[in-house]
Amino acid sequence: MNALGQYLVNGLMLGMVYAMVAVGFTLFFGVLDVIQFSHGDVLMVGAFAGLAASLGVSALGIGSPWLQLVAVVACATILTGLLGAAIARFLILPLHRAPPLNTLLATLMLGSVLRECVRLFYPDGANPNTFPALLPGSSVQLGGFALRVDNIILLLAGLAVIVGLHLLITRTRLGLSIRAVAQDGETARLMGINFGAVVLLTFGLGSAIAALAGVMNGLYYNEINFNEGLLLGVIGFSAAILGGLGNIYGAILGGFLFAGLEVLGSAALPTLVPDIPSAYKDVFAFAVVIVLMTWKPTGLIAEQMSERV
Amino acid sequence: MSTMPPSHAGSRGSVALQIALAVVMTAYLWLFLQAKSQIEVCVLLALAAAAVFAASRFGLTRRIEAASRASPGAGPWCALLATLALIAAFYDVHYVLLLICTVLLFSTACLGLTVQFGYVGIANFAGAAFFGIGSYTIAVLAARTGISHLLLILLSGVVSAAIGSILILPVLRTRGHYAALVTIAFGVLFHTFVEVNNVLGGPQGLRLPGIATFGYAFNDGFELFDQDVSFYVPYALLSLVIFGAAYITIKRLERSWIGLSMDVVRTDETAAAAFGIHIARWKVVAFMLGNFLAGVAGSVYGMMIGFVSPDNFTFSDSLLLVSIAVLGGLGNPLGLVPAAFIVLVLPQKLQFIQEYRFLFYAAVVIAILLFRNDGLLPRRTRQFFNNEASR
Fold first, then answer.
1. Does ipTM exceed 0.85?
2. Burial class (CB in 10 A: 0-12, 13-18, 19+), A233
3. Which pTM value belongs to this model?
């Protein structure tokens, strides 16, 4: 019971982080049909910005963890939001008319730049950094299972972000503009929507959500690393594509699916085949992704498209 | 075009021009490779930049291009002789020979990527994985079997292509970003697999014996005219042979109807299908051939270094291969060598770049994509005829 519960919480937590990364990928793909592959590293930059903020706040002598948390979240989201908008303005939009491979490659390389910048220029960036535990560490007894309060808070926060995003997309004027641009950029422009502004806002929004995911990840594992963004980016991209690019609900589904696969891999593989260590969980998860891609080449919730000849 | 000289009169001149170019390049590379101090390297780089600028400013670039079109046979021979001259000049300097081998082998692997990216348009972001499969295959087979090492090099390529073939179905069924994901997932999968697999040495990796063939071990080195010759010389010669063979194959392929079909598949699949071109066939051929080349290059590289570990085959290394292919000009086999030189040798020579190596080449690739999006030496439209008259 205890182990099962732990697997469940772990899976939900991972799924929440993956879904939040995947949502960014799918938002960007929706508005511009591009893959912003430095997304994972933007997440990492957000986490490091949060870490810097928490260190700065404690250096000012503010001890309250809640105030620190506010500073961490604010600093991470604002900085990363600006970074995302800047990426769109100076890299994605100029390359908009180029072949898709060029954009993919340019953003992959930008990911390397961000990663290397943190490794080389952040103080002690090359080593794993401890992320401060800002949430209460007590736990609630639930049957035979001890549920930690910080896990509940993180899960609820992630849920709030996803619900908030859903409301933003479906209920607000900005969401309407985003959907219009995603549907057809040219027509949206003709209807008087400020195309450039919507694109920049979308990239800022997606990147800010990634920063939140990075902070959540840091709070959960109490450690951040300069190269964690790469794998998180690849996983987020996989999740977005599993669900079907351009579909936010598909991305969320894909995120939880991928987390489920990983947890299943680490939990079930050693019991099924005794010789296999649980470290094969990533191998298992990515193998399933390849198989799923073969079965459904455009994702589980496929983008509606047709080709006229 | 109208300024191009008539083919007969220009033929001898164009050969002379190409030979002169080869001599200048060889001299420059010789100076560059043996430059010791940072200042020398910087001066040489500035010189190269100035020369390139001046050449394009005063129309020399166009004349060189016209010359290589007028007598296409001369260029490859010049390049071959120039490389041999460089190997001979540095016959006892291990480090420089290692750099030359690395450039040649990585260029070979990137020739494979060129077929995949540049000809049929399959995005392969697992280049390092196929390179690594070659290294690991030869590591295991050389330790466990007594098969001739030269045969093992070919076999490593075959194994690499065979393991790659499990990706064929997903690669054929998916397009664009979705296909990119499949190869990225495979690359990550491969890296995690060798890292946790104890049979393949886990994170520590495996040791490899050097290549031994016809009773002669490459790693022993040898004496020629009472001079100790570096043991890297045989590796350099082998790498040169492999690169040359791969280059000729790819060039032939490009100029044949196969290359033409591949180009159509890349530019417009629907049109290709409408013209009765078998899309799947050419995608499979290109994918297998590319992975074969990567595997062959990887096996020789592994034997040369004497050591394989998972850390050499990460996603970043795949990106390094891709950036060489893009830097050289996608689909242009000729551009790969200078691009590989820039990506692999420049950071080694400029010590202050060493630490910033990945940052440096990533920034360079971004700049190229933004400002010169065809790469350093863009691919030209194919020309089947040498002179105007036959058009």
1. no
2. buried
3. 0.82
